[in-house]
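> forwarded from #structure-qc
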């Protein structure tokens, strides 16, 4: 099965090369790497030029935010499996894509999900928090639980049904997309109890209390707009459990 890995980036020169290397170093040869750059001015263009021969598609132009960029990537994806790897992230091992493709094909899965290990800038191999996707189920979307998006792999048939990311969301467009993918649909999915992706802290969804407030507001909105009954107290109730991700990484 061919895998489409989509990376969106903007002024990510400090981490972009590590991301590109982690994809090009995968031992699964049947993949394409699509990079959508928002018109960076920090040296990212030089890094992308050095990797150009390893990229199936690359564009560098202004966009209307991260979800607009993701939609551009989806429009180019040709693989049976589609995933997103941000420019602050990298695959934990060279065997991630082969593990995913083999399991999804053998089990005829609609989705496969694993864990994400968070690290602080400058210490990419020191996991300080582990986002465990086994806590997710479609029933728990109303509590704000979702699989770790960089470690979520979807079959193209799910992408075709769900469509595009909504660009009127600033920070929880991936959650809204997952609600549309899973809520009310009996997807065949499995969980891999391994860290598949390492993610640097400080991104849009981990960038302080203001980001958390906006995130939870948009999670509430995503649920309500898709007919999923919830409330803010229910959504906030997940945070005590999330503390265990730090205590037991």
């Amino acid at each position: 099965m061919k895998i489409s890995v989509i990376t969106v980036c903007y002024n990510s020169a400090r981490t972009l090369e590590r991301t590109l290397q982690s994809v090009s170093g995968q031992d699964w040869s049947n993949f394409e790497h699509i990079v959508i750059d928002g018109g960076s001015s920090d040296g990212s263009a030089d890094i992308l030029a050095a990797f150009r021969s390893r990229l199936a598609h690359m564009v560098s132009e202004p966009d209307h935010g991260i979800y607009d960029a993701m939609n551009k990537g989806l429009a180019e994806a040709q693989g049976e499996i589609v995933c997103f790897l941000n420019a602050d992230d990298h695959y934990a091992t060279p065997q991630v894509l082969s593990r995913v493709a083999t399991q999804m094909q053998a089990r005829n899965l609609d989705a496969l999900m694993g864990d994400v290990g968070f690290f602080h800038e400058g210490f990419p191999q020191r996991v300080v928090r582990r986002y465990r996707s086994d806590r997710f189920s479609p029933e728990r979307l109303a509590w704000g639980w979702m699989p770790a998006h960089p470690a979520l792999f979807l079959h193209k048939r799910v992408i075709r049904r769900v469509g595009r990311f909504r660009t009127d969301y600033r920070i929880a467009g991936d959650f809204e997309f997952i609600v549309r993918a899973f809520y009310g649909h009996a997807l065949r999915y499995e969980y891999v109890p391994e860290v598949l992706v390492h993610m640097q802290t400080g991104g849009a969804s981990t960038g302080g209390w203001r980001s958390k407030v906006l995130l939870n507001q948009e999670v509430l909105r995503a649920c309500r707009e898709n007919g999923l009954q919830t409330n803010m107290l229910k959504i906030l109730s997940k945070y005590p459990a999330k503390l265990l991700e730090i205590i037991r990484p």
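QC bot note: Strands lie at 3-9, 31-37, 57-60, 81-84, 89-91, 111-119, 129-131, 152-155, 189-200. The first strand starts at residue 3 and ends at 9.
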